[in-house]
Design brief:
globular; 282 residues; Pantothenate synthetase; 20% strand; binds adenosine monophosphate; Rossmann-like_a/b/a_fold; ligase; Pantoate--beta-alanine Ligase, Chain: A,domain 2; nucleotide-binding
Length: 282
């Protein structure tokens, strides 16, 4: 596996592979890799000739008071894991490499970004759209892989690609979980023992909400209330939001119908966790 830190080195790698007619799969991450990230890399490995993974903690998508400075990092371990998942090229730029001077262009995501995490983290998806655009241009992927744990991020990136005609196919990958149902996340290391034992209730609350919707008797407001009540009494965390919306449009629903997402975010002492279930009702 080639590890590159600069844009010229990355471009040289990409140009060589493109000239040889090889198909490139891209897996963007912020590092501190776990099995969720590796499942994206393994899928990319199966579906492409070349896999490029990027590790970049993007300051643009962190708000003031968020965890940019203390986001967990372990490049040595990440290199081993990425190599074991079959990554061909690992791009690990410094912030100055990606943003050498203030940009004269600012991206604003106007759709799918004002709900859920976008509402709680203003500017977050503008930062995501900016870095993903740069990574698409730098790596020229045929396919790019994103986790559905970050379902709003996937909806925004799919919208970005469609709106701006990026020549890339974006692929959403199912969430990888711990045995007790907690979604794998780099931020899980922030949880205290007690918080870790309660965190699986996030997924359980969402399952309860979806089962309620499937029974068909409750309104979206009642489904959200039930999910919220369960979280309040079991998760031992502050509930940031519980939402039931259409997916991927993320519009409010009059009744639970069609393709939907039930999503929640909760806050523990040092970690904010998100999870969701995407489901269909006819
Ligand atoms: P991150 O490093 O948190 O920015 O995540 C990088 C990519 O991995 C994103 O597309 C995430 O949605 C995806 N990802 C994170 N956690 C998981 C998980 N548990 N299962 C599947 N994909 C994940």
């Amino acid at each position: 596996m080639k590890v590159v830190k600069t844009i010229p080195e990355l471009k040289e790698f990409v140009q060589t592979e493109k000239k040889a007619g090889r198909q490139i799969g891209l897996v963007p991450t912020m590092g501190f890799l776990h099995e969720g990230h590796l499942s994206l890399a393994e899928k990319a490995r199966k579906e492409n000739d070349i896999v490029i993974m990027t590790i970049f903690v993007n300051p643009l998508q962190f708000g003031p008071g968020e965890d940019f400075e203390r986001y967990p990092r372990d490049l040595e371990r990440d290199e081993k894991l990425a190599a074991s998942a079959g990554v061909d090229c690992l791009f690990v730029p410094e912030v100055e490499e990606m943003y050498p001077q203030p940009s004269i262009i600012t991206m604003t995501v106007t759709g799918r970004a004002d709900k859920l995490c976008g509402e709680k983290r203003p500017g977050h998806f503008d930062g995501v759209a900016t870095v993903v655009t740069k990574l698409f241009h730098l790596t020229e992927p045929d396919k790019a892989y994103f986790g559905l744990k970050d379902a709003q991020q996937f909806a925004v990136i799919a919208g970005l690609v469609e709106s701006l005609n990026f020549p890339v196919e974006v692929i959403g990958v199912e969430t990888i979980r711990e045995e007790d149902g907690l979604a794998k996340s780099s931020r899980n290391v922030y949880l205290t023992e007690d918080e870790r034992s309660k965190a699986p209730h996030l997924q359980k609350a969402l399952q309860l909400g979806v089962q309620t919707a499937e029974r068909g008797k409750k309104s979206p407001a009642e489904i959200k209330q039930l999910t919220n009540d369960y979280l309040q009494s079991h998760a031992g965390a502050a509930v940031d939001y519980v939402e039931l919306l259409s997916y991927p449009e993320l519009e409010p629903l009059e009744k639970a119908h069609g393709k939907m997402i039930l999503a929640a975010a909760i806050k523990y002492s040092k970690a904010r966790l998100i999870d969701n279930i995407i489901f269909n009702l006819n």
